Structures are given as structure tokens and as C-alpha cells.
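G.,

No rush on this.
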Amino acid sequence: MRSLTYPRHLARQAVLLLTVSYLTGCASPTQVAPPARCAQVNYPVYDPAEPVNRGVFAFNRIVDNYALAPIARGYRDLPDFFQQGVHNFASNFGEPAVFINDLMQGNPRRSVNTLGRFAVNTTVGVVGLLDVSDRLGIPRHTADFGQMFGVWGIGNGPIVELPLLGTSNSRDAAGKVLSFLVSPLGDSDTVQTLGTISLVGGTVDTRASLLPLTDSLQKLPNYYSALRNVVAENRAAFVREGQAGATSPALDSCANSASDDFRAR
């Protein structure tokens, strides 16, 4: 019976992922990374299918404006301890995937750091609701398959606006698909349930953290180009972070990036 029920779990997760994951690509899925981490893009943003991408973006924006963003705004009104618990749980549930990416990137120090965090927070931190590791001086970092491909030297490829999944380059889009197919904790009913909770909670939490950024970008004349370029900057910094083997996210801020740069594109 397992072989019959697993495809149903997979289909359910696929539908759920497509429903709630829009705009998580602005930070790490997988990845819950602060939007302020940016680096100067030293390559041209290649967007040959821009007319098509803009059409998909318009659809994504409707979904975001009428579904995800309102939920995220309501979520921000919840008590801080609740929001922190959701953030911690989703982050901890994603640590096994981060661990795999650390290993695949050839970063033993980062992999040991991730494994230690997961062990401590899952046990002492009550399945990750409390971030005990951070208090012990074990900082969290994020990693995903898009970063892994970048560390391996695979190029960015053209920009792709995915329905409900947001803006990314082709390399990161492939990484998103791969991350969906890989399940480090197995496919038991318990893991499926926890994964659903983590996906929904993590998506809303990430979207809520991005509200100040997207609210400011929407005031610019060309929201599509502005968001596309900010995503590109964040992902460029994310790959460099992986190449450096850093065990904690870079603290450099791109908040002071000139908005004129966005208007010009």
C-alpha cells in the first residue's frame, strides 16, 4: 500500500508548494535568509524572455496581492513568540537539506555546524521551536541546490519567472525542482505532516519578513525589474557565501542601493 499512497503524498505536496511558495525565492527556501544580504552583481542580468516573464509576473503579483501578502500582514500582528517559534521550527526542519548541500559543496565545517544545530535544536529545543544552538554560539547559515550549482561553477542562465514560485535564474529554478524531489528525512506520514507545517509556516514567515522590501520596491516605476535585480543581487551574494565556506550569513546590507539603478532597467 505504501507504493500507492506515496504518489498521493507527492501530489499533495506539489499542489501545496505551488500554492504557497510565491516570492520565497527572494530569500533562501529554501532557504529563510535576510533580504538585506546583497552583493554587487558583476554580470548582466540575462532576461531574453522578459515579455513572457512579465506576463507570468503579473499573474504572480495578483496571487500575492490577494492571498499571500494579506496572510503575511496578519501573521505579523501575531505575538512575537509565536512568530519566532514558527521561524525556528521551519528553519530547523530545513537543516537536513542544508546539511546535504554543505556536503555536496565540499564544506565540512559548515556541514558539522549544521548537523550540530539540528541535533541540539531538535532535542533540547523541542523539535526546533527554540533556537538553543544560537544561544550556544552555533550560528545558522542557509544553503540550497541553486547555491550548490553556483559553487560548482554552473552559470546563472536566463531569468525565469515561474508561476507562483517567483523570479529566479535557470540554475536556481533547477535547484528549486531538485529540492522538492529530495527528502532527507524520508517520506513517513509523520515527516509528511511536519513537512507540510514547515512549508506553510516557513513560506508565510518568509513572506512577512520580505514585506518591508517589497513594499518599498512596489513604489518604484518598474517593480518587475527592481525585484528581479534585488533577487539577482541576493543570489550572487549567496553563492559567494557558499564559496567562502562561511558558517554565518554575511551582514553587509544592500538597503542603501540606489533606486536609480532600478529605474534605469
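When you get to it, here's the other one too:
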Amino acid sequence: MSTNLLAGKRGVIFGALDDKSIAWKVAERCVEEGATITLTNAPVALRMGGIQELGKKLNAEVIPADATSEEDLEKLFGESQEVLGGKIDFVLHAIGMSLNVRKKREYTDLKYEWMQKTLDISAISFHKVMQQLYKMDAMSEWGSIVALSYIAAQRTFPDYSEMAESKALLESFARSFGYHFAEKKVRVNTISQSPTVTTAGSGIKGFQEFFDYADKMSPLGNASAEACADYCVTMFSDLTRMVTMQNLYHDGGFSNMGMSPKLLEE
């Protein structure tokens, strides 16, 4: 049900690959709530996924951009402001990739060249996005920037490997840049989401077993991609103007649990 919570707002959504992507669901909900958006992903991801289809459905311009390239980001935000007709009100960073995880390298035998690429794509890209927005003064007053994170930034989940460090760095960037962006009345937050069945997440070793475990451990069960999209909409809306520099758990209560009787009963 739409309440036009984002009526008149302009946004940029990073990371929609296919209809399983959280970013895909967020894009749909934002437009449903009255926003106009541009969609972006790396050129290789545009060839692999169905983002053009989403763009047509939402009447959203699709602008290719490598989020690790400052030049691409400058072009993206410049074009987005032209297409959308003004400064940007909200940005979603939903980018994460680890070659070591993809290649099933053990944490005790990581390839450091791949690790550096993981950090650049999954975390440093968030700083680059914010720095470019900051330098271009591209965000509207009371704008909102959100990145998707995971509790492995604080807790140990062995199979999540170096992505844990990536998420920890991502959350740190949100706090640090959130301080500076406050001067422009722009807020920056991360959302720590439940394990979610996406094309990227499903590639992690033992994902289904952990998904089931988290679902039982969480009093409300795992939060779905659709529920995460709803939460993002509230974070982009004017109702959360004073929320910034936070890591917000959206996980059905998992983050505050110690043990669940449901698991002991098995």
C-alpha cells in the first residue's frame, strides 16, 4: 500500500542485479511511494542482470557506473541530477563482492590481491560515493544515504570470510562521513539486514543452513528483502530526519539473542 511517503523525492539506487536483489525491491518500493530514481550498477553487472527491465518498469534511467571509479561516479551523479531535475534526496549503496569467497578460499589462506579488490568494491566504494556527492554538493538538505550491512561486522561468522572486515569498514565510513555530512544536513546510516536469499548471498558456503539457523534464532524470523525495502523507504523519508551515523539492525531480533529454545528442541 502506497502512502506517497517519498513524493517529490529523487534517488539513486546502486546494486539492483535481478529480482532477488534487495536493491531491486528498494527501487520498486521507492517508486511506489512517489519517488523518481536512477538505477546504476557496474557495466559487467548490467550485462548479467535484468536491470534494464527494471528501468523500463519503473521509468527509471539506467546509468552504468563502476562504483570504484571516481570518474564514473562523478558522471553518474551529474547525469542523475540532470535526469531527475535537481539535487539527490536519497542514495542506496547495496554493493558487495568477494573473489576469495567466490573462489572458496579459506580465511587462513586468502589471496591478498583479491582481498584488496573485495575491500575496494564492498566498502571503499561507499566512501568514494559519499566523497563524490560531498564534493559535488549533489545531496539535498535533509537527504539520506544508506548502505546495506551485515552483523558479521561485529560477530564472527567463519564462512563470511573477508566480507566481515568489509562490512566493519563500511559501517565505520558511515559514522565518519556522517559527521561531515551533518554540516550539509544530510544523514548517513547502515542497515544490518538478516541473511537474505539473493544471487550474491546464496553463493556463500553453507548459506542455506545458516539462513535456517538465523530464522529460528530470530524471535520474529528473518527479515525479508521486501521488509528491508520498507525500512529503507522510512530511512529515505522525512520521518527519520534526526537519525544519522547509526548501524540499524533489521534482523527480526537476531542481534540481541543469545540462545533460542527452538534450536535446543531439535
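The chain has a mean pLDDT of 94. The CA atoms of residues 153 and 168 lie 4 Å apart.

Enjoy the weekend,
O.
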